[in-house]
Structure formats: structure tokens, C-alpha cells
Design goal:
By secondary structure, the protein is of the alpha+beta class. Helices cover about 50% and strands about 20% of the residues. The chain has two domains: about 80 residues, 2-Layer Sandwich (Phosphorylase Kinase, domain 1); about 130 residues, Transferase(Phosphotransferase) domain 1 (Transferase(Phosphotransferase), domain 1), CATH 1.10.510. The strands form three sheets. It has a five-stranded antiparallel β-sheet, with helices on both faces. Strands 6-8-9 form a three-stranded antiparallel β-sheet. It has a two-stranded antiparallel sheet with strand order 7-10. The longest helix is centred in the first third of the chain and has 24 residues. Bound molecules: adenosine-5'-triphosphate (ATP) and magnesium ion. The site of magnesium ion has 3 residues, from loops. GO terms for molecular function: ATP binding; hydrolase activity; protein serine/threonine kinase activity.
């Protein structure tokens, strides 16, 4: 059947399974050339001026794809980008089949008191973030929901996969990396109760794995202090 130019993706999405409706994007499960895929669609926001909205949406789509490719080039796990449609602002990504978010994994592992398993996970998180920052990728929205655990085969370790790079950018500044870690620290400690020691393990592993960690950790300390001062004032 003949199809008008620009309608193929919307038609595909109308048949896809909606996984998550967020404030900025809808996430679907679909197939791309027979492979299980995740489609992230950034839809227009009516409260924004249409020209500004189009610009912001385009920029986030570009940033997401660019950072994923940069990570993958450096051997850092992130989903394969199958296809990008800049008309409907859709990114087609490899689905990490059978994965769970680190958030869900920590929550269930905490309940069953498997401390050793959590420590290994914190270590893996420190390592992958160190490698990402050494490539000068700043994630911009680090949370435990934006990391997936791909289950390994029996004797294999499960593998961490970074996702959701819409707010990412490239920077070599230790300050930007320190703020990235600060955002994660805030999210981590508020999502997962009593995990201060676990987050310290993550930072220790980050420090051991990154070539440039000392300047970053120094900045993290500064940013924390600034945050504390601000909360004392207001
Ligand atoms: N490649 C993938 N494979 C499997 N599951 C995924 C994949 N990408 C996303 N998901 C699932 O969909 C959820 C939402 O995806 P994502 O974090 O990219 O969108 P979002 O949080 O809505 O984005 P944004 O913060 O830009 O609004 C993830 O937490 C994860 O559960
Ligand atoms: Mg997310």
C-alpha cells in the first residue's frame, strides 16, 4: 500500500506496546527489522512555544544518539541505535531483553539482604561511570532507573547498560563530572534507604577506575558543600 512520506513511523507506533508515558517522552516496545526494539518518542509539548519546543526536542534527540554512539565506540555498554527519525523525533534502540533497572534490582536485593551482591553492583557502577567520564560524556540524568542490568548467562557476570542520554553532553571539566556524580548521589540516597556505605563503595570504585578522578571527587565535595549551604539559607 502506498504510504505518504513521514507516516511510516506513526503507523508503526500505533501498533506498538506503550511501556512508559513520561513528561517528555513515550517509550514503546516494537520490532525493528525483526529485532526486539525500544522506541523513544519525544512528543510536542503544548505549553512551550512550538519553535522553541521543536529546537529543544531536536537537540535532546541528537544528544541522546551522539552520547550513546560515543559510549559504544569506547566499549561502554549502551543500547545499539537502530534508526533515528528526526521528523517524529523517534529513536529506535536495541531492546535489552529480560533486563531490569538497577533501581528495581537494588530494591529486591536489599529485601533479601544480599550485601555482597549489592557491593559488586556498586563496584560495577563506579567502573562504568569512570569510563564514561574518561570519555568526557556527562550523562546529565544519572539515576538507578537509567541503568539496566542485562542478565548474564550462568557463569557470566550480569552486565550494566547505560540508557536515557537525552540530557547528556560532552565536557572534560571536572566540575561537570562532579555535578553528574552529585545528581546520582542525591537520587541514589533518596531512592534507596540506608545506602550511604554502598554509595561510598561506588565512589571508591570510580576513584580506582578513572584516570582523572581526584579533580572530580574534589569538585563533588565542593558541590556537596554548596548544596548544604544553600539548604541552610533557604
Ligand atoms: N534499550 C532498552 N531496553 C530495555 N528497556 C529499556 C530500554 N530503554 C528504556 N527502557 C525502559 O524504559 C524506561 C524508560 O526509558 P528512558 O529512561 O530512556 O526514558 P525516560 O525516563 O522517559 O526518558 P526522559 O528522562 O528523557 O524523559 C527505562 O527505565 C527502562 O525500564
Ligand atoms: Mg529514564
Amino acid at each position: 500500500m502506498a504510504q505518504e512520506k513521514g507516516t511510516a513511523v506513526p503507523v508503526l507506533l500505533s501498533k506498538a506496546e506503550l511501556l512508559k508515558q513520561g513528561a517528555e517522552a513515550r517509550v514503546y516496545r516494537a520490532e525493528f527489522l525483526g529485532k526486539p526494539a525500544i522506541v523513544k518518542e519525544r512528543f510536542p509539548k503544548r505549553y512551550r512555544h512550538p519553535v522553541l519546543d521543536e529546537k529543544l526536542t531536536h537537540r535532546r534527540t541528537v544528544q541522546e544518539v551522539r552520547s550513546i554512539l560515543r559510549c559504544r565506540k569506547a566499549g561502554i555498554s549502551a543500547p545499539v541505535v537502530y534508526f533515528v527519525d528526526y521528523t517524529s523525533h523517534c529513536i529506535f534502540l536495541e531492546e535489552i531483553v529480560g533486563s531490569s533497572t538497577v533501581r528495581d534490582h537494588i530494591a529486591s536485593t536489599q529485601q533479601s539482604c544480599k550485601d555482597q551482591e549489592l557491593e559488586r553492583l556498586a563496584q560495577q557502577m563506579g567502573q562504568i561511570l569512570a569510563r564514561m567520564h574518561d570519555e568526557d560524556v556527562i550523562h546529565g540524568d544519572l539515576t538507578t532507573s537509567n541503568m539496566l542490568l542485562r542478565r548474564g548467562t550462568e557463569d557470566e557476570e550480569s552486565d550494566l547498560v547505560l540508557i536515557d542520554f537525552g540530557l547528556s553532553y560532552i565536557s572534560a571539566l571536572p566540575e561537570d563530572k562532579g555535578v553528574d556524580l552529585y545528581v546520582l548521589e542525591k537520587a541514589f540516597l533518596s531512592t534507596h534507604p540506608n545506602t550511604e556505605a554502598l554509595f561510598q563503595k561506588l565512589l571508591k570504585s570510580y576513584t580506582a577506575s578513572s584516570k582523572k578522578s581526584s579533580a572530580v571527587i574534589k569538585k563533588l565535595d565542593e558541590v556537596r558543600l554548596r548544596g548544604r549551604k544553600r539548604s541552610m539559607v533557604g
